[in-house]
Design brief:
Elements: E1 16-18, H1 54-65, E2 83-85, H2 86-96, E3 107-108, E4 112-113, H3 115-125, H4 134-140, E5 142-144, E6 154-157, E7 166-172, E8 175-178, E9 187-190, H5 194-199, E10 200-205, E11 212-214, E12 222-224
Antiparallel strand pairs: 1-12, 2-11, 3-4, 5-10, 6-7, 6-10, 7-8, 8-9
Helix pairs in contact: 2-3
Length: about 230
């Protein structure tokens, strides 16, 4: 599966591909009635009402286009020894889903992901259970300052309304991986982009993030295509 850029196109030079395999899922978590990513960027989602703000849609599209790829968050992760932290496993799992289609209410690679479905999936593969929606995930994590962000932390956004309605996984270098909106794929975005900086409301970390665990994938699963 080709790793796609935020606008859905394949990376050009140095494109790297993932050997896709079924990742450990653990016990199933029931999906909440409200989806984790209720706010569309450039299009509606199931359950949304009213017309999207054209200016907001254009800002979101600019944010996606400005992701400035390629970027390889696995370069700093030891995937050879067979052991790494749970937060590093979360990053590995997020990278493995790059290019998976967005689907409102989705929570698997086969059916697609919405934003909180992706984060829940990645953390569950690292043996950490998260609530289903972005708002609940915000409440379930410990607040950290933006300058304290490290790979595997969650970043939260308020795109509409008065509470959290979008979440992504921070992977370093001011970038995060998320499931953006209908018609898009799981992709990178830049946290220092004007749109995401304006809608960013905080970051969260799970207490178990620093615990060591067996790696579910090895470096051989990640190959580079020149």
């Amino acid at each position: 599966m080709s790793v796609k850029s935020a606008d859905g196109s394949g990376l050009a030079a140095g494109q790297w591909r993932l050997g896709r395999s079924l990742l450990p899922g653990g016990m199933a978590v029931a999906m909440a009635l409200l989806g984790g990513c209720a706010t569309p960027m450039g299009g509606g989602t199931a359950g949304s009402t009213g017309n999207p703000d054209p200016a907001a849609s254009r800002s979101a599209q600019t944010a996606v286009a400005d992701a400035n790829l390629p970027f390889n968050p696995l370069e700093t992760i030891d995937t050879r020894s067979g052991m790494h932290t749970r937060s590093e496993e979360v990053v590995v799992q997020a990278v493995a889903q790059l290019g998976t289609p967005y689907r409102w209410g989705g929570e698997s690679a086969e059916s697609g992901f919405d934003c909180s479905g992706l984060t829940q999936h990645a953390f569950l593969a690292a043996d950490i259970e998260l609530p289903r929606t972005s708002y609940e995930q915000y409440r379930a994590t410990d607040r950290i300052e933006r300058e304290e962000l490290r790979p595997g932390d969650l970043v939260f956004f308020r795109l509409e309304g008065k509470r959290v309605d979008h979440v992504g996984i921070y992977v370093g270098d001011n970038r995060f991986i998320h499931a953006p909106s209908r018609g898009k794929d799981v992709s990178f975005a830049r946290l220092d982009n004007a749109y995401w900086s304006r809608t960013y409301i905080g970051a969260g970390r799970i207490a178990e993030a620093d615990q060591l665990q067996l790696a579910s994938q090895r470096m051989e699963d990640f190959t580079t295509e020149q």
